[in-house]
Amino acid sequence: MDRVALVAFPGIRAFDVSVITEVWGADRTDRGAPAFDLRRVATDTTTPIPMRGGLSLLPDRTLTWLSRADLILIPGLDDHITPAPAPVLDALRRAHARGTTIAALCGGAFTLAQAGLLDGRRAITHWNLVDHLRTLHPHVTVVPDALFIEDDNIWTAAGTAAGIDLCLHLVRRTHGAEAAATIARSMVTAPFRTGTQAQFIEHPTPRADRDADTLAAVREHALRHLHEPLTVGDLAAHAGMSPRSFARHFTAETGSTPLRWLLDQRIAAAQKLLERTDLPMPEVARRAGFGSEVTMRQHFASRLATSPRAYRAAFSTASASASVSEEAGSNPIAR
């Protein structure tokens, strides 16, 4: 059972506390999700931690419990300059020195920067705070448009909903895509989003609603036909646009190029097939739309730093006959 620590001190955001609690604090073992031991960690366990909106959080472990944690999570802050207590910063430095994975949501990056843990490392925060992070902590390499990013086992995420993305990703990398998808379905959210936070930065709305609806329909069409050799030209034709216009509008709406988005969907489809079925590798590659096992292996290596076979060995939950009877051309992602 993973031991997960939510680090609490005055000024943390209630939304991020709720996200962390929803992902790691709910028991979903009856649906096949892994079990987690989530603890609320603070300098002491007797003083409730105040949060905005009249809410408070009562810690159940002191900072010494961080030495037992497999994962340490830092919520965002209501005010990005909120100073963390010195004992918290010291405990985070010791945890990183031990090799514990540490993740900060939204403005939680400022807490890690206060501890000096982001000096010389890449990090991200809410798009509206990027310049503040650069100014206050000039030794941090701020990446302006990622949804989340990792450097030296330290994870940071962009604003608000990107914290959900990061939390689900951390579950995925430890327990596989199916575990993350189970939690995401329970939360009624997507198990992963493509693109960057550039798509959320304030700017005039570039397209009419009808165009957004058209692109949403194209994405749905692509998901139902991933096993086919789709091209940008095919998707553009389905949208009734020229390939150049389609690519421009698609990127403006999603923050991702059509080709990159398609690759993300194919990788996700292959992950699910590797987890849920015992299908041969060439068939997994075909159903996910890679065309060949060699191509699928190349993309797994470049995007996931592993091979399809190693991924299946780590995350497969399939029985010997699972899903083998599916129709050869069916959509590889269960809806």
Give structural notes.
The chain is of the alpha/beta class and 335 residues long. Helix content is 44%, strand content 12%. It has 13 helices and eleven strands. It has helices at residues 14-24, 86-98, 108-114, 130-136, 161-175, 177-187, 209-224, 232-239, 243-254, 258-276, 281-288, 293-304, 308-315, and strands at 2-7, 36-42, 49-51, 55-57, 61-62, 71-74, 101-104, 122-123, 141-142, 148-151, 154-157. The strands form three sheets. The protein has a seven-stranded mixed sheet, with helices on both faces. Strands 3-4 form a two-stranded antiparallel sheet. It has a two-stranded parallel ribbon with strand order 8-9. Strand 8 (122-123), helix 4 (130-136) and strand 9 form a beta-alpha-beta unit. Helix 5 (161-175) packs antiparallel against helix 6 (177-187), helix 7 crosses helix 8 and helix 8 (232-239) packs across helix 9. The two termini are 28 Å apart. Residues 195-210 and 319-335 have low confidence and may be disordered.
List the total number of helices: 13
Content of β-strand: 5-15%
Q: Please state the overall shape, judged from the principal axes of the Cα atoms.
A: globular
Biggest sheet character = 7 strands, mixed
Rg is 21 Å
Question: What is the average per-residue confidence, as pLDDT, rounded to a whole number?
Answer: 86
**Structure summary, number of beta strands:** 11
Helix content: 40-55%
Distance between the termini: 28 Å
Name the helix and strand elements from N-terminus to C-terminus, one letter apiece. EHEEEEEHEHEHEEEHHHHHHHHH
